[in-house]
Amino acid sequence: MFASDFEERLFKERQEKLDKIAELGAQAGLSRLEATYPNSFAFTHTAPQIIGTYADTTGELLEADKPHVAIAGRVMAHRRQGKAGFAVLQNNGARLQIYVRKDDVGEPAFELYKLLDLGDHIGVTGFLFRTRTGELTVHVESLTFLSKAMVALPDKFHGLTDIELRYRQRYVDLFMDNGEDAAEPATEESAADNANPEAIAAATAGMKRLPAREVFMKRAAILKALRTFFDSRGYIEVETPMMQPVAGGAAARPFVTHHNTLDMELFLRIAPELYLKRLVVGGMDRVYEINRNFRNEGISTQHNPEFTMLEFYQAYANYHDLMNLTEEIITFVANEVNGTTVVDFPLPKGPRAGEMVQIDLGKWTRLSMKEAIIKWWLPQFGDAPVDEDFQNKGSFVAFLERCLGTIPSDLPADELKEIRDYLNYKLLQLGVHGVPWGKVVSDTFEEVAEQHLIQPTIIYDFPLAVSPLSKVKPNEPDWTERFEFYIGGFEIGNAFSELNDSEDQLRRFEDQMAQKNAGDDEANDMDEDYVKALRYGLPPTGGEGIGIDRLTMLLTSSRSIRDVILFPLLRPAKKAQDKEEKQIGETN
Question: What pLDDT band is residue 287 in, cutting at 50, 70 and 90?
Fold first, then answer.
């Protein structure tokens, strides 16, 4: 229970102080519980209310009016000088100074004041005044003890500077963090995004960030703004099951659980999509859900196994309608939360990881996936593709073979070998390995173009092979009416014209099952009930999912998804320590 002998000794010392506080309470006729852990305090103001109301009030006016307040909070600073002293209370994210004088509060209350430690909770009543230095202060007339901090607070100037400790002890981080230190993500999660996480740390060492409390206040404001946006447009907020008999709606590995009474296997939701579309079948033409999803996958600066998404569906709309709506949503939320569409954002991954860039969320670019690959194809990989190279598998194979013959001959030998290996591997995937050519195209896009998508960009028209729930483009059967939007170099949202042909959906489920049987554990399972729902008739529908955690990262300039999740999933502390010791041993 104790991290060190010092912490255990400190706990015993504070226990003794708590006993003395109980004795003082007994002298006033209170029980031990009433004296040490009372169950309420009748406050009249919060610290932000006092500061907001009296910030501009002069000392003379305060002296004349002596406005009375009752406030409770945590002791964050404490200095005593003889028969008087000052302390600082923190309440609702704001700090307010109090002045305690023995002659005003009486000897028992002043003895109580002397027993206070940093972190204790107290309540005071008194009147406001300004000190000689002009600081707004409560002149205390009564003091009530509310709760004792039994362990020491972190350094008062820096809070928790160890980034992993901030995540593990968010309850401390929220009241101690002041945003001074832009601590880098833990090496374990950074390594998933960049081969040199130390470079990211060095690049961001002096970077200012928002205090933890402010980050989560903004997260709440983002959710409020999203609800305002959709409610005002006639959408209905709904709730769909988090335990599902079929893991569907996304390509992801699910968490598995078991219902004892029904004796059935269930999956934690990887997406609410199939249930929300059932609601559209049922006549709820505009629905949205802010939902928790669970995916049994890796951890990085953009991935947490448990995360929050917004999903919404609109009948009689297609992906073009949702492109327009997406731009409206992001612009609206940015203005509501930050008062501007311009944000400074530290890139979390890629070759520019750690670089602070300015992004305007009100200015958008649209490119097809083909156009993005063509635009950012590197000349050292041979001739850039043209639109005709994406017509089918044969034309894409021919393009890769053409690249092998047009690689610049003056490249260094090691780079030349790396490029040839890359292109030959693509051909091997399409040949011996039997990977669908649309999947190879999609992977190529991620490798070639994604890192360049810093400013808001909609990438539209995705291969059918990676879009099992999307409607096919009328004249291009291997491509679908799907788009993703990217900001800061990573995906924020995914949308498409929903597939509403029940028999086409059945065939795609069967194809997904074949991929699963071949070893793809992220392929969709068959959902017969969903096919039955489609047979009742799903109107033309556009649907979209937006990652709330990633959107919050953008709007709070946060470097890691863990910075915007109150309690992110972490390796158990003992295992983390063992792993660290093992790594140290291997380097010695």
Answer: very high
β-strands 94-101, 136-147 pairing? parallel
CA distance 201 to 452: 21
Which residues, in sequence order, are bridge partners of residue 264?
Answer: 259
Task: Give Cβ neighbours of residue 583 (< 8 Å, ≥ 6 apart).
Answer: none
3-state secondary structure of 289: strand
Give the residue-averaged pLDDT of 134-147: 97
pLDDT value at residue 297: 87
The span from the first CA to the last CA of the chain, in angstroms, equals 31
Query: What is the largest distance, in Å, between two alpha-carbon atoms of the chain?
Result: 94
Measured from the Cβ of residue 408, the count of other Cβ atoms closer than 10 Å reads: 12
Q: What is the pTM of this model?
A: 0.90
Q: What amino acid occupies position 379? A: P
Q: Which residue type is seen at 451?
A: Q
The owner of tokens 């979390």 is 348
Q: What average pLDDT score do residues 292-301 get?
A: 88
Nearest to 18 by CA among 120, 109, 148: 148
Alpha carbons 223 and 225: distance in angstroms, whole number: 5
Residues facing residue 497 across a β-bridge: 542
Q: To the nearest whole percent, how much of the chain has pLDDT over 70?
A: 92
Contacts of 313 by beta carbon, 8 Å cutoff, 6+ apart: 276, 277, 279, 280, 286, 287, 288, 498, 541, 542, 543, 544
pLDDT at 197: 46
CA distances from 11 to 4, 96, 321, 555 (A): 11, 27, 61, 40
List the beta bridge partners of residue 344.
358
Task: Please report the beta strands in 328-471, taking only residues with DSSP state E, as ranges in sequence order.
Answer: 342-346, 356-360, 365-368, 457-463
Q: Which among 475, 532, 467 is positioned nearest to 496, based on CA atoms? A: 467
Q: Return the exposure string of 482-505: e unless at least 16 CB atoms fall within 10 Å of the residue's CB, then b.
A: bbbbbbbbbbbbbbbbbbbebeeb
Planar angle of CA 532, 536, 541, nearest 5 degrees: 100
pLDDT tens per residue across span 437-456? 999 999 999 999 999 999 99
d(CA 117, CA 16): 12
Give me the pLDDT at residue 199, please. 47
Query: Quick one: pLDDT at residue 198?
Result: 45
Mean pLDDT calculated for residue range 283-287? 98
Residue 341 has pLDDT above 90, yes or no: yes
Residue 287 CA to residue 277 CA, distance in Å, equals: 9
Residue 263 reports pLDDT greater than 70: yes
Q: Tell me if 21 sits within 8 A of 145, measured CB to CB.
A: yes
- Given a contact cutoff of 8 angstroms between Cβ atoms, the answer to whether 396 and 388 are in contact is no
Determine the average pLDDT of the residues in 65-79.
96
Mean of the pLDDT values across residues 69-86?
95
311 residue type, one letter:
E
Q: Which two tokens stand for residue 5?
A: 């002998």
Is residue 82 scored above 50 in pLDDT?
A: yes
The backbone region for 249, taken as left when phi is positive above 0, alpha when psi lies in -120 to 50, beta otherwise, is left
Q: How far is CA 22 from CA 11, 30, 31, 108, 146, in A?
A: 16, 8, 8, 12, 12
| DSSP secondary structure letters along 66-84 | --EEEEEEEEEEEEEETTE
